[in-house]
Amino acid sequence: MLHILFLVGSLLFSTTNAGVQDFCVADLTAPDTPAGYHCKNPANVTAADFAYSGLSIAGNTTNIISAAVTPAFVAQFPGVNGLGLSIARLDLAPGGVIPFHTHPGASEILVVSRGAILAGFVSSANSVYVKALKKGEVMVFPQGLLHFQVNAGKSHANAFVSFNSPNPGLQILDFALFANNLPSSLVEKTTFLDHAQVKKLKAILGGSG
Fold it and tell me: Where does the Cupin type-1 domain start and stop, copy by copy (predicted)?
């Protein structure tokens, strides 16, 4: 009996210790894998790996959407590797919009830090949830669902968004349809848009075909 208890205790002790790992700072020189980046040698980890200053700078909103997203995902912020979280900054000039997009790998929560933002998402049942948000208010967007943010005021707006993944992924609907070389005939067939509209949108967003 003592022998069995000792064996069980040893297995539990070794299993517990094997699962303990404080962090896994991403080794960005190694390839990204479905399981994430390999861990950086702990001897080479510094405090800088756990801090990121990029979100202190406003993004450049001089573009077609009058908005900018500054990510602090694992590729920019190696310390979040394996921790199941990340963050980004949104900047929206007057009239700015973050078009319909999805994050295949994470849910998102948005905190407005300046101005007014109209945000919303569409469920898989095609139900629409839209809310006008002001400074200090938050909204959550479930994983994988199409969602958007629009500057609802006359001045600059910005927000911070957090994800439950170090690499949430991003696909912007407009760019997926009109910024690549997918043949226009297929886009027209699958979106019910006419040829002139598709060609116009491809010209604006840089697509071909």
Answer: 53-199
Give the pLDDT score at 8. Answer: 44
The answer on whether 156 is annotated among ligand-binding residues is no
CA 204/CA 49 separation, integer angstroms: 39
Length of the chain, please?
209
Bridge partner list, 87: 72, 162
pTM for this prediction: 0.85
With a cut of 60, say whether residue 19 has pLDDT above it. no
Alpha-helix runs per DSSP H in the chain: 2-19, 173-178, 184-191, 195-205
Select from 100, 103, 50, 93 the least CA-distant residue to 72.
Answer: 50
Q: Please say whether the beta carbons of 170 and 144 come within 8 A.
A: no
**Domain boundaries, given as residue ranges, for the chain:** 49-169, 174-205
Q: Is 195 helix (H, G, I), strand (E, B) or coil?
A: helix
* 38 annotated to bind ligand: no
108 is in an annotated binding site: yes
Enter the DSSP assignment of 165. S
Compute CA 45 distance to the chain's CA centroid, rounded to the nearest angstrom.
25
Has 103 been labeled as part of a binding site? Answer: yes
- Domain 49-169 = CATH 2.30.38.10: no
